[in-house]
Amino acid sequence: MSNTKTILPTEHCETCPAFTQLEQMGIKVGDFDRVVALAGNPNTGKSTLFNALTGLKQHTGNWPGKTVTRAEGGFEFNKIRYKLVDLPGTYSLLSASQDEEVARDFILFGQPSCTVVVTDATALERNLNLVMQVMEITEHVVVAVNLMDEAKRKGIEVDARSLSRDLGVPAIPVTARTGDGIHTLLGAVADVIEGKVETKPLRVNGTPEFQKAVSELVPMIKQLAPGIPNARWLAIRLLDGDARVQKAITSGELTEIVSRQYQQDVQFSKKMSVEGRQ
Amino acid sequence: MEANDILAKAESLRNNLSTGFRDEIVKSLYTEAEQIARRAVKVGVNKKYDFDQKVDRLVTSPYAGLPIMLILLGIIIWLTVSGANVLSDTIANLLFGIGDIGRNFFNSLGFIPWWITGFIWDGVYLGLAWVISVMLPPMMIFFPAFTFLEDLGYLPRVAFNLDWLFKKTGAHGKQSLTMAMGFGCNAAGVVATRVIDSPRERLIAILTNNFVPCNGRFPTLIMLATVFVAASFPPALTSFVAAGTVVGVVLIGVAFTFLASWILSRTVLKGEASAFTLELPPYRRPNISRILYTSIIDRTIFVLWRAMQTAAPAGAIIWILANIPIGDSNLARAIADWLNPFGLMLGLDGVILLAYIIAIPANEIVVPTMMMVYLGAGMMIDGPSTNAAIFDLLVNGNGWTMLTAVNLMLFALLHNPCATTIITIYKETKSWKWATLSVVMTLGAAFLVTFTTASIARLFGWA
Q1: According to the model, what pLDDT value does residue B91 have?
Q2: B329-330 and B325-326: which strand pairing?
Q3: Which of chain B's residues have a Cβ under 8 Å away from the Cβ of A202?
Q4: Contact list, A167 vs chain B (CB under 8 Å)
Q5: Is residue B59 part of a domain?
Q6: What pLDDT, in 10s, does the model give residues B358-370?
Q7: In this predicted structure, what is the pLDDT of residue B450?
Q8: Which helix (H) or strand (E) holds A78?
Q9: Measuring CA to CA, which residue among A131, A43, A144, A122 is closest to residue B32?
Q10: pTM score, two decimals?
Q11: Domain hosting residue B363, numbered range
Q12: Do A220 and B1 touch (CB under 8 A)?
């Protein structure tokens, strides 16, 4: 994307949450500098966070599976424009129901500048499975530990620093409903995108023979679809016999999808922000 | 590099890997997650959580769960019925008053031909005024109440309570969620079926969604329940009887959902119900301003706007039909008369069927269309805005009986989806076959049921 503005901090305060500026841009997403995806288990408050950031009124509801399509909106943070994509909530990225496929295709082929995985502080263990699956696909991950207020009420304490250290990506406690921690979260997103924070996502490597098999497949995939960002993940899925990925490779969809996903985004954003209300 | 080479390579590599390498990876993923979570999370004791769990044990208990659900549904519908009556009269008087002023103004100008005045004020405007006064009040109460329960976190509990029933019919437990969305709008309910993984069960959920009355049909049910069923009861009981009737109709709809799911999963969509996990989210304090925003702007205005878009042309069509003279009568009457024998067979009449044909784009306008044909064009000075006036017009003027009212309620509940829903079904299934089946199935049920009740009523001499 052209006209990327980079703001270099001249003072310490500029990176401090209290000094940052957030401006909601609603559905004006035609012209943006960065794309951020919101992933997460169902009912962890993705849509609430989405609304808090964009000022849109994407319908939130207290039941898992509310968002079945992705919704998009924009916001400006420290003078950089972001497009935010709210993905359907999923427990994994492996199976093939339609909502999971929407989420997975976007993280995989939409090449977001950063993926924020929204997790439920009161059920962290189950949520971490998805975090780790997303980290398999991309390095640019920030974990938002949401529903901190609810966790507190239930007497649950979450040590976000321990989480960051173990996962190898920033983990930021937030309460999307009240807006607590949102500026810190956006700061972390910007840092990851700008490379100020280097992420080292924890990845499960499997056995050495498995490693070797993956490393044999990766160059072949890269040769077939140059510029594909997630060859390693695709290789793993192929070894697993994932029918959807096999189909994507044989039908030539893979190469097509890389270019198509990008063009569609702007059109789709406008459409979804109008029709996305359900 | 050929795509097939890659697949072949992957295949051969996979065969060389020790069996169970997948399980190993998944297992280590889970172990890792568990360890990380254990390090990061400290759990204390908290009374609030215990309270949540006690509430959950009550509302999802095998004995109290269903009754509590019915009581909540009853309360919402009672609030809607009793509140809507008050508001409806006020809004109707206001809008019809404005219509009179507009018509008089046009007449007083002198140079505007009668057919322009008639077309605008008795056609387009009247259609709009009817739709707003009939639909807006119930929506203003029903939607916020429904959104409140949704935000609170009650809907997944409904799914939990109804799961065993859906399972027995061979459908997916999450169908109760999409069914609940259908109360708002069936098209939205059809889109919501995307949460169901299995294509077979998703199709069942799509095809049966129309059996829950959407917001566009609630006003019809409420009006009929108030004007006919509740009219013979003492005034103090009216709203309760009306609400009870509407709850009854909703339950009939739910019963049809189960029946249709059962039949479908034993005929064209054979298969067993698949298992699924459903989280019961914590109860959350609903955010009042959000509820009002969602229910008023996203739902009420959105649905009302859609209804107005179809009501205006429908009003125009009705007016034109009613003003094309055929002998002593007019075209609208002639079509209605032609449909009449078939209508009477179903315990309805020709005007009702004509109204349903014109209302295919949006069910909201059935009652207004019906009224306009009954009243005839140009004769209408004041809209019958009170219940007594409606009763008088229908019973004394057009020969309605209790059978007509009951069968119209059943027909409104069961008949074909509106055009928007049909198109949504096509978009979601990408097949005209399923879209057509959804129409045939519902219309078939509507004809069959109304014909049966009419025949029984006549056999016993009730009608």
Answers
A1: 87
A2: antiparallel
A3: 32, 36
A4: 36
A5: no
A6: 888 777 778 878 8
A7: 95
A8: none
A9: A131
A10: 0.68
A11: 64-459
A12: yes
